[in-house]
## 1
Amino acid sequence: MQQSAILLVEDNPDDAELTVLAFKNNRIANEIVVARDGAEALDFLFGTGAHSANPPGLPAVVILDLNLPKVPGIEVLKRIRATERTAMLPVVVLTTSVEETDVLGCYRSGCNAYVQKPVSFDDFVDAAGKLGLFWLVLNVLPPTGN
């Protein structure tokens, strides 16, 4: 896997498909790996479970839903930040929640950005394009191994 891949952690198949479509509509050609729950995301990031035989490299960015089965998004975020290998990995929370406790909890746990999912398709496509442009083109990632 290339450093430019995106890990999309989203349990709702419609939202995952919409996100992938929005990236394609914005000409974001990066590989998109979809994890359907928090446990699958952690297996992918840490080379465990289904990924233990051939652990992938780290993605350029993780786009993380909060309300996930098996392991909640906030716990995924905390585990990412708790491990040296993944501590600097950019994590963008993309969720429907605008609850103050969710926003504060995510920032306190180390998210890099918190974005509310837009309701309309056009707004969602626009937001996905801006996310992709910033995190995959404009943002400078820390050197690997640091």
Note: The longest strand covers residues 91-95.
## 2
Amino acid sequence: MSSPTDAFVEKKVEQKSAQFRRDKRDVHGWIVLDKPVGMTSTHAVAVIKRLFSAKRAGHAGTLDPLASGGLPVALGEATKTVPFVMDGRKRYRFTVRWGEERDTDDSEGRVVATSEQRPSEDAIRALLPRFTGLIEQVPPRFSAIKVQGERAYDLAREGEALELKPRPVEIFELTLVNQQDSEHSVFEAECGKGTYVRSLARDIGRLLGCFGHVSALRRTQCGPFDERDMIPLEQLEALCNRAASGEGSLADALLPVETALDDIPALAVTRADAAKLHRGQAVLLRGRDAPNTSGTVYVTVGGRLLALAEIGNGELIPKRVFNLTGLVASPLRDEGV
């Protein structure tokens, strides 16, 4: 039997939990965090979710704790657009330290091979075309790739020998920015989904015969988001504190949900057609204003995002409907004000 004290404590905990659930609210939009080194992507999402008291949040592409830079965090209905960001191009600036290969392919791992050789700028530049275009790449052993249902990094930590298979990835651009000294080279890469910069450092080092690993990494672009969109955590916290005291609005920190859909055509519809789409019904496209394209579009009504839809056989078929009630991005935020 529980004591009166236990019952009192349990009641207080239940009240606190209920208050916490009540305080959660609908927040819709994107925050592009300038993630600091040392923070995990999961922790970053949790911090932003707490700052906004948001019901739902998720990120669009993991950044390792070692890495800094753009971590797009989707709040509320923006989570429905995450795949469009994850499928977009990424851009990184990274430093490779020569002379050591590590089991994690970055500076946090254990040294597994060393060399006294150091590459020249000419030797590095001559090799880069081999890593440009559509290439085969073996992911790092310490990565989120699944092997028979288990994450590779979990198996690697347990000491299991892993043979990860090469995967096709696309590198659109790879340049040597500068040679800091004989030990370090700085690169920039623009790449497609699924590319591992750590693997690039490892494979380039092996071909040069000097080994190498990533010692610094920053993501400067992720899909439609670049450094102009990033906000440091300290600045975001300060903005949230000002908003809590009645100075400014949290909406000023948000980018609109549709920012993630920049590469998708927009289609405006009437309020009558919007009502049908909102109920999940297809709309016939007729008349001279009917689009002569097919594929995915994002639909607006009165300048407001309504749905993601497919055009086919003269119909507009809703696939994802948005319900943007609650806190949304300030209209001025989209204009860079």
Note: The mean pLDDT is 87.
## 3
Amino acid sequence: MELQIINEQGKPTAKVAASDHAFGRDFNEALVHQLVVAYQANARIGSRAQKDRGAVNHSTKKPWRQKGTGRARAGMTSSPLWRGGGKIFPNSPDENFSHKVNRKMYRAGMASILSQLAREDRIRVVDEFKVDAPKTKMLAQKVKALGFDEVLVLTDEVDQNLLLSSRNLTNVQVMSVRNANPLALVRSARVLLTKSAVAKLEELLK
């Protein structure tokens, strides 16, 4: 597999050979779907909670006498059958939403996504990607000069200037190769890699 190299003006200059193991695999839709679902599930936090019948605020007084009223017997107002009563199976903050994905499956899924992006000509490579100062305007101009409206930039290491410059740009996402995730790759219209990032990806996806 060969990836297109572009210069700072977005013009194609040459091509770089990339490993078929990382950029030349068949697309496995089921595996990619599993990876994306697992990534979103593992990002969830236990922030919801409901009260059971022992936790709701209520009186322990019997609402009415046991017999003779013609109504169903009732012991206390915390019953789940009553309005304002507790939940039978309440949601708990301790609920575990995580999905397990084997390392081999994760690497194969990431390689599958990258291979599909390469086949669709949505990956470009640059020698390096840096800005001289932490300025949002500077990074926006650099991205525009490369010809991108929306792009995910993957570098070997993200320096502080690049990180600070990208925080206020909704159409530019910058991350290191180690932080690359299936959701970001699937959602990205275009992906920009540095040469060192290509080598790092090939190493990580072996």
Note: The chain has seven helices and six strands.
## 4
Amino acid sequence: MVLVDGAGLPLAVDIESASPAEVTLIEPLLDQAVTPYVPPRLIYDRAADSDPLRQRLAERNIELICPHRRGRVRPATQDGRPLRRYRNRWIVERTISWLQSFKRLVTRYEFYSFLFHSFAKLACLMIVLRRF
């Protein structure tokens, strides 16, 4: 998982196995940001459509912008105005594609997860240095 700012610069990166739900991984990712600045709006895909997550992020003064899942039983919590910002999700996808340019991250050669995590952080650092 990658946390990026509005320009696409990585602020935090975290790895986890495929079994935990993505909703539980968002808050630890926010805690790992390298700067004290945390964006006031978090754009995510439909996997983060969770009312308890929205409440916990609202306590941190972060607005979660994600479309509701299909077949949602509860009433909608956001109207179409914040979802206009969802069009900026391409910035996140672009940063992920920048990370995919590092072959060591595409194919995981490391046995230990802390080595892979270190290479992911190094790749984020190289992306930040290229931008400046």
Note: The beta strands are 2-4, 10-13, 41-43, 63-65.
